[in-house]
Predict the 3D structure of the following.
Amino acid sequence: MEETILQFGTGNFLRGFADAFLDTLNRQGLYAGKAVIVSPTDSPAVERINRQQGRYHLLERGLEDGQPVRRLRTIESVTRAVNPYRDFDAFLSLAENPALRFVISNTTEAGIRSDIPCAFTDRPAAAFPAKITQFLYHRYQKGLPGLVFFACELIDNNGDRLRECVLHYAGLWQLGGDFAAWITAENRFCNTLVDRIVTGFPKEETEALFAEIGEADALLDTAEPYHLWVIEGNYERELPLQKAGLSVLWTADCAPYKKRKVRVLNGCHTALVFPSLLCGVASVGESLADPLLRRFLDTCLYGYILPALGDTEENRCFAADTLQRFANPYIRHLWQSIALNSVSKFAARVVPTIGDILDKTGEPPRPLVFSLACLLYWYKHHPVQDDPAAAAFLREQSPETILARADFWGRDLSVLTEPTVQCLTAIEQKGIREALVWILS
């Protein structure tokens, strides 16, 4: 099969997500194309991929319809990998392929940026969008058509942002108005939303898994069964992902899906993290198995988050899937990792729900306020990983002063001062579990 997809990113996520989907298309005879991987950094993963000729195994395991599932499959949708830091000419030569059609990227949240100094003559340019600019300029010079980009980085409007950065470097390097017009007219940069937990190489299980598959596999990857890919645009005729039975949505706007994911999945994590840590519970799965914490989570989700978002059948199905994913016995998702940078997370994930309820009813959603009080209590009494200035402010200042900081929370939360202080007093006087019983009553 021809190389029709260029993939920026050698990591576990795309190999457990997009490459697995492409393998499904190939095996069903729905698509005759494979992916060539480019490393956005000088990564040793390129050598591992090439030693195995792109072939590896993916173990999908978790819960579906409440029942445990386990699928171990071979992935053969990748042809090879190229390291532009070791062979820049080989990287540019990929642009000369007339069969190339799609570009998929996952270069982390920090990958799509235009403030990294780069020169057009660098081999390669340091920034990912700058590498794309070099690549597209070479393709443009060869008179070949543009490409369709699926940006999978976890930032808002990722495709739009990538296009802006490419145009920035094209202008900075004075590559000409015709090239800039070609970028805009002949290439499509699609915003996307990706959702799948890919847990990567299972270090503690390699001996048993290598025996099961009959060989050592340095690229062995693991993931949950659940997956969702929301893509602005519609290329189903060329890339029939839905026909293959995959959870892919072609849409005109990713925003509603992102809002649902942030409010429900991320919002539940953020609402539950500090009540759980204060209870001495270490992981998401353990919290769901704790009757009191599960009751608190259900109250937050079904009593406040879903009504504020829209208590529709579709949103309830998403919520049920979320809780099933949280209960995955194969993933031990630690609260300490979820707790990183919680001030900004609470502002983005929970405050919008609180704000919607306040604006509609004028009444504070007390369980979510309790979650906020748990955050303040934890920051005051435990070491945290967050912006040092914000952490110090929360540790030293009064709740009233903290909640008035609209720059922290996205809005002035002074109206929550009285119920927050009540929750803090309950935690201090009753202990966390009795305080949970109190707030739920």
